[in-house]
Amino acid sequence: MPPGILPLADGLAEKAVLSPANTGFMLVCAALVMLMTPGLAFFYGGMVRVKSVLNMLMMSFISLGIVTLLWVLYGFALAFGTDSGGVIGWNGDFVGLGHLGLTELWGTSTIPVYVFAVFQLMFAVITPALISGALADRVKFSAWALFTALWVTVVYVPVAHWVWADGGWLFRLGVIDFAGGTAVHINAGAAALGVLLVVGKRIGFQKDPMRPHSLPLVMLGAGLLWFGWFGFNAGSWLGTDDGVAAVAFVNTQVATGAAMLGWLAYERLRHGSFTTLGAASGAVAGLVAITPACGAVSPLGAIAVGAVAGVLCAMAVGLKYRFGYDDSLDVVGVHLVGGIVGSLLVGLFATGGVQSHAKGLFYGGGFAQLGKQAVGVVCVLLYSLAVSYVLAKAIDLVMGFRVGEDEEIAGVDQAAHAETAYDFAGAGGGTAARRTTALGESPTKKVDA
User: Fold this and answer.
1) Residues sharing a CB contact under 8 Å with residue 177, sequence separation 6 or more, in sequence order
2) Are residues 313 and 284 in contact, defined by beta-carbon separation less than 8 angstroms?
3) Is the N or C terminus of the chain more exposed, i.e. has fewer CB atoms within 10 Å?
4) What was the pLDDT predicted at 16?
5) Count of alpha carbons within 13 Å of 12, Cβ hemisphere only?
């Protein structure tokens, strides 16, 4: 993320000029990251029951509206403005993004501030959307919208400053998070756990079948996430001048493939099947894990990161049954655990020859980088968990976070949106068509005028 820790291409700092190539590249990357939020909506939407599909889609889509406005009004100014004590930033010129020169560059990069701001906006949009998967089937849409606005303000923005802003305390400590292992995935996963402790379990959890209603939608969503993730990771170097973005791109592909295979292998040994849900989930676990490490490891290291994450995340999703927390779509098991795995493995597999000179344990760097990574993991996890719990508790006390029992049983789509995802009674295949088929007539038989 904004110029990496101890970048190898230090010469750019003295002669930075606007690069049309890097600017165009970053605008494409920002668009790719934006596509990840609809992709996430499909991924989550396919995994819920029919009665909650639209609500699941909307819980992601609403973030595109709420977070966009907050980021422009004050989020960017707080996250990436002038540092104050390593905790938060501020720059009045960033408020409303109305006081920037068209070609004013971001720091020592070769792209305009506007481009960096919109790229970072897309990260801010998808992070609270990730949390929504843990709360499927049972929360008020209005409460979720309020939580999104508050959470981005008091959790995401400060953590983004700690991790990626030049003066952020974790950045200064030397924690490597290339594209969001701590700021995005651990942050969202810990928040999901905090809210779960307030909201509670779905009616029928561990009793009623709660299978995905559309695995094709899940696969489509996973594919869109995989595609968009190249912008998420490669774009986080803010340019293509020195080859680091290319390494991040390759590592993203390699780790994701390894994680998918690791998850499927575990699934085959544990349950006897290779499932499409396992393939999609394994791919996402690999994407999560390589996010903090893609600029620090070699492709061989990326294979290790992906394989380890695929197996550990597959094991972790079963913890909710052991400990009794209802993480509906495995946000804790995939994003929290995957983010922890990827962040810590930087301390083992960092080569010191890509984004920075920092080396991991297996490359002669000792335990120093691993210790720094552990500090980042623990601090972000505890902060997000605690503050998210408090926010959810406050909302629950003021307006109630959860829908009523009758509404939950009937389906959140009808209660919150007055719509259903599929019209089973329409001309395309309703009861009339089934009746004529049962009588031996063709449902497409023409009726004489």
Assistant:
1) 1, 163, 164, 170, 183, 292, 343, 376
2) no
3) C
4) 82
5) 21
DSSP β-bridge partners for residue 112 = 105
Q: Which residues are paired to 84 by β-bridges?
A: 88
Q: Which amino acid is at 286?
A: G
CA 255 to each of CA 13, 155, 204, 292, 436: distance values in angstroms, whole numbers, following the listed order: 31, 28, 36, 12, 52
Total Cβ atoms within 10 A of residue 31: 15
Residue pair 274/267 in contact by the 8 Å Cβ criterion: yes
Residue 209: its pLDDT value, please? 86
C-alpha 217 chain-centroid distance:
18
Question: Residue 427: its pLDDT value, please?
Answer: 52
What residue ranges of the chain have pLDDT lower than 70? 1-15, 426-449
Give the whole-angstrom CA distance, residue 279 versus residue 291.
Answer: 19
Q: 244 has which bridge partners?
A: none
pLDDT of residue 432: 40
Nearest CA among 163, 214, 211, 165 for reference residue 186: 163
Per-chain mean pLDDT for the chain: 92
349 touches 293 (CB < 8 A): yes
What is the separation of C-alpha 296 from the centre of its chain, rounded to a whole number of angstroms?
Answer: 20
Predicted local confidence at residue 251, as pLDDT? 98
Q: What pLDDT, on the 0 to 100 scale, is given for residue 14?
A: 59
Q: What is the DSSP letter of 359?
A: B
Task: Output b/e per residue, 283-310; b: 16+ Cβ within 10 A.
Answer: bbbbbbbbbbbbbbbbeebbbbbbbbbb
- The pLDDT score that the predictor gives to residue 438 is 43
Task: Give residue 388's pLDDT.
Answer: 98
Contact 372, 175 (CB under 8 A): yes
> Which among 195, 428, 433, 148 is positioned nearest to 325, based on CA atoms?
195
Residue 426: the pLDDT is 63
Handedness of CA 418, 424, 425, 426 (dihedral sign): positive
The token pair that represents 38 in the structure block:
């609809």
Orientation of helix 53-70 relative to helix 113-132, angle to 10°: 150
Q: Tell me phi and psi for residue 402, to 5 degrees.
A: -110, 145
For the stretch 192-234, pLDDT in tens is: 999 999 999 999 998 988 999 999 999 999 999 999 999 999 9
**Contact indicator for 404, 202 with CB cutoff of 8 Å:** no
